[in-house]
Amino acid sequence: MHTRTSTTPTSPIAAILLSILLAFLAPAQSVSIRAATFNVEDIRTADLADGNQPRLKRVAEVIQRLRPTIILLTEVAYDMPGGPDFIDGEAPGRNGQRFADLYLAVPQAQGLAPLRYKAFMPPTNTGLPSGFDLDNDGHAVTTFPPPAPAKPDGTPGDATPEGRAYGNDCWGFGTFPGQYGFAMLVDERLTILEDQIRTFQRLPWEYMDGNFMPRKADGTSWFNDEERALVRLASKTFADIPVKLPNGAVLHVLCHHPTPPAFDGPEGRNKRRNHDEIRLIGDYIEGASYLVDDKEQPGGLDRFASFIILGDLNADPEKGDSFRNPMRTHLLGRSRIHDGPAPRADLEVPGLTPTDTARFKLRADYALPSSDLTLLRSGIWRTPPVGGDFPSDHYPVWIDVTVPP
Q: Cα separation of 361 and 355, whole Å?
């Protein structure tokens, strides 16, 4: 005699609830991402009027071949009221999203797939008039001349002596408001936790204990008392931008672009500022007591946070004109920063070493993960686009990492 076993069909609603429960109970998995930084050399608001600027199309082609999950683009103008070509009534800081929508979301060569990103741009000190004579030439310049348009090949228009005079008295050098800002772009499937972003645009340089603020030949302060209390440490800004990954992990992307240690006099105000701007990153990771962000919140990064440092830091640990080797002193070799080998180039370029990230023969650009992340591979992308010459004086630096849940 056979016994028939009776089963009750599972309802569609029950099946959905069961799948949700199983997904909730399943352990979260590590996720691998590609993070990159790319100095795109002075992209301006006028360049983003449409999707046809020739150099920007080559920039986008390079990024579409590299295909990062997260990328920091340095030297993208922060569009803002008072700046050139700003459209009244629009929100400021839209140039990063404009580049994503007009260029990266459109295939730039045969066989390339589009990239869809969400962008975030913090305000920048570059090109913001201070009202002071910060270069001590006897004139406090507060008015900028109209910037020169891009050249026919799309490269930036040249700066004028009047523009440089204006920039030298700004909180951060820029020949117009917002020049040389930066934009962070993330895959549209990720989430930028905007309410948790911390920026340090207005942090006074004087707050940093043991700082290297410049001095005159007689040993007195380069800045007068009023200037010294207000002059800002960051030449652009320093930003901690938390990003939520598909496995639920939060990755802190530490974005920075210190001033180059050049273009100054014997007082070395740019060299010294570059040093202290790089020190700021290490101090933030270690939670230095002097830190106060732009929302008046004190302190640094949580000691258990995962992070990646991205940016053009304008300092080579082996050569160049940096002051007191800030990369070796404050970042490379720190216990919380992955001490992996320097990224190496995919293509040999005459005159450059395999670790040079810029055409001026220095390692200037960095993607440095925290030590709790697994570094899978890294590189410097020098392969030019099919559409022409390489579109910047810097090359993208990228890393592939695994982020635990």
A: 9
